[in-house]
Amino acid sequence: MTAHASSNGAMRQHWAVILGASVGTGAAIAREVATRPGLHVFGMHRGHHPDEAAALERDVKALGAECALHLGDAGTHAG
């Protein structure tokens, strides 16, 4: 895991926020992001494709990146 020190000495990480991450273009972007050293994946998905979301998480972690998937609809206030 790559992190950088901020001005106050705290370590910070770099994350890409990806909407619709479980399938299609979102999943492809998440997998590509995971190949970039020091960049991790925070993905939103609605839960319609749980098997694909689980596969994405495995793939991203296998590439050496962290992966946090959040179940919700980014198009609503409730998220």
Overview of this protein structure:
By secondary structure, this protein is α/β, with parallel strands linked by helices. 29% of the residues lie in helices and 28% in strands. It is built from 2 helices and 5 strands; from the N terminus they run E-E-E-H-E-H-E. The strands form 2 sheets. It has a 3-stranded parallel β-sheet, covered by helices on one side. The N and C termini lie far apart (28 Å).
List the helices and strands and how they pair.
Blueprint: E1 4-5, E2 11-12, E3 14-19, H1 24-33, E4 39-45, H2 50-62, E5 67-71
Parallel strand pairs: 3-4, 4-5
Antiparallel strand pairs: 1-2
| Helix share, percent | 25-40%
Give the strand content.
25-35%
* Morphology call: globular
Q: The biggest beta sheet, please? A: 3 strands, parallel
